[in-house]
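Supplementary Note 2. Why include the ligand at all?

Several targets in our set were suspected to adopt different conformations when bound, so apo predictions alone were not considered sufficient. For every target with a known small-molecule partner we therefore ran a joint prediction. The input for zinc ion is given below.
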Amino acid sequence: MSVAAVTPEKTLTFEQKLDRLADVAVRVGLGLKEGQELVLTASVDTLPLVRRITAHAYEAGASLVTTLLSDEASTLLRYRHGKDASFDKAAGWLYEGMAAAYASGAARMAVAGANPALLSKEDPEKVGRANRSNSIAYRPALELITKHAINWTIVPAATPDWAKLVFPDLPADQALARLWDAIFAATRVDREDPVAAWKEHDAKLHQRADYLNKKRYHALHFRGPGTDLTVGLADDHLWLGGGTQAHNGQYCIPNLPTEEVFTTPHKDRVNGTVTSTKPLSHQGTLIEKISVRFENGRIVEAHAAAGEAVLQRMIETDAGARMLGEVALVPHSSPISASGVLFWNTLFDENAACHIALGQAYSTCVKNGENMKPEELAAKGANESLIHVDWMIGSGEVSVDGVNADGSHEPLMVKGEFVTA
Amino acid sequence: MSVAAVTPEKTLTFEQKLDRLADVAVRVGLGLKEGQELVLTASVDTLPLVRRITAHAYEAGASLVTTLLSDEASTLLRYRHGKDASFDKAAGWLYEGMAAAYASGAARMAVAGANPALLSKEDPEKVGRANRSNSIAYRPALELITKHAINWTIVPAATPDWAKLVFPDLPADQALARLWDAIFAATRVDREDPVAAWKEHDAKLHQRADYLNKKRYHALHFRGPGTDLTVGLADDHLWLGGGTQAHNGQYCIPNLPTEEVFTTPHKDRVNGTVTSTKPLSHQGTLIEKISVRFENGRIVEAHAAAGEAVLQRMIETDAGARMLGEVALVPHSSPISASGVLFWNTLFDENAACHIALGQAYSTCVKNGENMKPEELAAKGANESLIHVDWMIGSGEVSVDGVNADGSHEPLMVKGEFVTA
Ligand SMILES: [Zn+2]
Ligand SMILES: [Zn+2]
Ligand SMILES: [Zn+2]
Ligand SMILES: [Zn+2]
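The joint prediction is reproduced in token form.
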């Protein structure tokens, strides 16, 4: 028999874990520089974490922390009371302001805790128009982020509505506590030394990306229930994973948690059928059991058991919205996947399974891509779109082959696990 | 004998009064135009009113309501954890964004409910630097507002910290309820027909301004305990009061409540001593029993029983900070004054007593002033500064004479009440 040892992390109070999450977010996720300005976005439901992050950012030498707080109840009021003509308007002045802040050196942190089902009952046509207007207005700011001009990160915070969706059978307070525990585990702040744990994990993701970059596969072949999909990889594609050195010199880990390695597919060389393995929460609406067929890169048929109208609108956003901009590999044994919890939140669910994204490709996933013009990137196979929507196609039943230029296959993942790397 | 009639307004629930306040704010205060964008600022403590305003704005046809929510706890964290070098930074990108929104047609509403004593215990030197940086960054946006390029308004909301300061002897919930009642009374939403009540009140303020505009006094002479002050009026000064037609065509009442008529003093023709009759809350700090002496327009001596350091820093902001930019007349019998409550909030206290403001003059209070260059305005006597700080000099013991160009005096207010008008 054995007596259970009380490990230090078990004795941490909720407040201490919250404070550790803020510390990890600022130091490990964001890599805030002394004297740097910080632009933080968060919902009012996440204020306790926002305040901890603010304190840690100022301690790390932030010159100013500006938090743009959103209120989901106010968001809903637009759908309840807004005139039909209003749904094509976006706060361009605010997004341009954010872009100006980044251009002048500010860092960017987002606290993610939205209710994944906020807009599920609203008119998909209005939701689609509002999303499209926002995407267009947000584009200049987003480009500075995706090109890693600045250091940025996204960290999760549990909120009551999100917790209720994840743990529908638990009382509200228990659901919230369970979701916080899952967040503390996924962000490694319940480890004895979270910073050291992140260092080790980050090294492992880089090692995996390096392996794939040496392999230089021409395509990946996904096989599983409802899935037989070949995803060509862009010419000069680069696999990335873990942290990145931003162009302002700061090292950041853009997503907390992160378990993926990812690259840019070739937009014209995607063929076959694929079925989603987890439901997708897309800007407040839920899309379940997606099943699509690709021909020469384009979706030619798309279905979903729930939210099909939202899916259809999404892929009609623009020409690139029905083509792939990302493919990512995540072992089925990843800690988030092993938790068995469905988070209805891309930050978690995309780090629990292999996934693909419709829409915009990351120029950083093409060699020297950040310095290329749109035409040059397109020539390499990188897709362009207003949207970038990740959805999950991996599971313990899905295997992946690496396909060489000569057509030969080699097993890369078998039943959800990497064969080597 | 008589039986007290139950008037309809007595039967209104708190929720109904809150909803009426939002309705009055949008329709009477702001005069929102169908299809117009709205930029709203508020503290997170005022979310219940913010949501009502949002609903009423969308019902009135707002194309988009964007609320910039502030969190006072986060503001304090800067003073607790920020490095010394950080206090000269302002979110210029955000203020520029707001200016861009106004320039492109957005309306502006501020919900005022700040804790008047938030920064009272912080280092006045840091508070002063932070305020100065903000004033500089905010200037372009503020100019569009003060010139009435757009329709705008400020409405109050009770918050726990503010209520505690106003009613220190009451339990927290009673203090909050009392402050809400005072707000509902001052904003006339407890009347049977608030919109009609505002129409009548607005007409009265315009009538009073018209009377003074016909009089064309050369100066005003204030006399009372600790006060013997002559305030020269600017050449071609204009008295304003109540609502204004903004240049975008919308009629708005910029302050709810408002009881004042006000104009531009001549910056070089202010002489004598003046003592404040109510304490002043200035950006989170409290200044009490101000006593200053003017010579040829400039403060040459300044004291305060509390907050003197903040006062000194304030008047050292720039050359115009020790000169007057506004003089305003309010009868002592005004409903806010009659309530006997000290609000520690300029929106209320300046509407309970005659007041003067140090700093920037309103170009709208000079004939054709909005079309004049800074030099032309200065030649008329209009002051220029980064600050505009109102403080109260009127009471039931203060009388005001109108002084004609020939030096003759005529009584305008006696013991706080208008003789005619
Ligand atoms: Zn991904
Ligand atoms: Zn993605
Ligand atoms: Zn005034
Ligand atoms: Zn004023």
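The interface with chain A takes residues 34-35, 37, 44, 47, 50-51, 54-56, 58-59, 61-71, 73-74, 77-78, 80-83, 85-86, 89-91, 93-94, 96-98, 100-101, 104, 106 of chain B (CB under 8 Å). The radius of gyration of chain B is 21 Å. Comparable summaries for the other entries are listed in the accompanying table.
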